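Renewal narrative, Specific Aim 1. Our central claim is that a sequence can be written position by position from structural information alone. The example that follows is taken directly from our test logs and has not been curated for this report. It begins with the structure tokens describing the chain, in the order in which they were read.
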């Protein structure tokens, strides 16, 4: 199984800024409209999700970036696409099974799947953006076979130790007819479509290949939740697309799909959006409404990042250690998704004050 890549200090000295390509987007990824309005300017915007052994300011590139809004359909997207090979093969370190937040988010996904499918069994499942196979392994109990697509598996064996076929490519690179053993009747994707330059083309490709009765479930960060929670931190280079309920429904219906329902996981990323749909010719549908599905309580902390650092920040990442005294300290919460459990932990540690950048959890804890 892949392990999180660590960028060596020697590699950092190569200064990749000049070599990393960007592509300008001039039309809407959902409706194809060209009436795009800039709503947020981000000059010299740095990369996120890069963890190094010690700070190395200036050795990772930044890019001029903007958030654009389509005036035709209301979909939001970035203006510039950074070379995906650089973002997801050379620097990407997230692994689902090493993040408690991701684990509980995937467990919520499974609960939504059970509810929308009435615990149906499937012949074959395809996961786009399978990461380290956490979700696919969970699904093996209800599916006869499974296949995952993700570039982090590039160069790795085509079958995992759990008997799951893996394709180490971006979905755009995959020839489904040649590389898939059978047409899936369950297609899932969690936190992948927001990373795609052409989500419409990828979804059309999947819907065309999947079996007639296939069920699709896609999870993306919800644009409504981003706006409602003032989550400025959720705009970054890896997330090209910002789907609302309306824009995702439009995308599905434009491609000949039938929307079955959606739900928000309010304890994950401030409110992720999960949408279930099928082909219009399919007769399957939800037995129960998913809209009142309840999320589990979120947790936090990733021990794999203990001791690492962000390239342009001096402090390193540390887990709380024995003897840590915060009774006279002010604590700035930067992991906004985990603000509630962090606040609870800070109370246990008797921290004097906690400050949330969004200003809704600021207060004296003494």
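The sequence written for that structure reads:
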């Amino acid at each position: 199984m892949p392990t999180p890549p660590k960028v060596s200090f020697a590699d950092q000295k190569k200064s990749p800024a000049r070599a990393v390509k960007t592509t300008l987007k001039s039309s809407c990824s959902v409706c194809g409209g060209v009436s795009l309005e800039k709503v947020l300017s981000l000059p010299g915007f740095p990369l996120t999700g890069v963890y190094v052994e010690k700070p190395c300011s200036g050795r990772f590139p930044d890019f001029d970036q903007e958030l654009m809004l389509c005036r035709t359909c209301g979909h939001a997207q970035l203006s510039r696409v950074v070379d995906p090979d650089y973002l997801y093969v050379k620097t990407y370190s997230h692994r689902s099974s090493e993040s408690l937040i991701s684990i509980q988010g995937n467990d919520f996904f499974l609960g939504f799947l059970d509810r929308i499918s009435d615990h149906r069994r499937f012949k074959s499942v395809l996961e786009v953006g399978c990461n380290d196979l956490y979700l696919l392994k969970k699904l093996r109990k209800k599916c006869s076979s499974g296949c995952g697509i993700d570039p982090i598996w590039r160069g790795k064996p085509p079958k995992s130790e759990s008997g799951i076929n893996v394709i180490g490519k971006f979905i755009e690179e995959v020839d489904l007819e040649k590389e898939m053993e059978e047409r899936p009747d369950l297609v899932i994707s969690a936190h992948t479509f927001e990373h795609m330059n052409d989500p419409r083309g990828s979804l059309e490709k999947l819907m065309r290949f999947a079996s007639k009765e296939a069920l699709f479930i896609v999870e993306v960060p919800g644009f409504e939740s981003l706006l409602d929670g003032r989550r400025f931190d959720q705009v970054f280079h890896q997330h090209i697309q910002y789907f609302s309920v309306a824009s995702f429904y439009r995308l599905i219906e434009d491609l000949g799909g039938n929307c079955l329902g959606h739900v928000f996981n309010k304890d994950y990323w401030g409110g992720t959006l999960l949408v279930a749909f099928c082909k219009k010719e399919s007769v399957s549908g939800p037995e129960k409404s998913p809209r009142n599905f309840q999320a589990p309580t979120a947790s936090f902390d990733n021990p794999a990042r203990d001791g690492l650092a962000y390239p342009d920040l001096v402090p390193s990442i540390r887990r709380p250690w024995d003897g840590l005294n915060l009774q006279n300290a002010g604590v700035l919460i930067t992991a906004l998704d985990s603000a509630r459990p962090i606040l609870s932990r800070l109370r246990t540690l008797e921290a004097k004050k906690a400050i949330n950048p969004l200003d809704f959890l600021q207060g004296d804890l003494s």
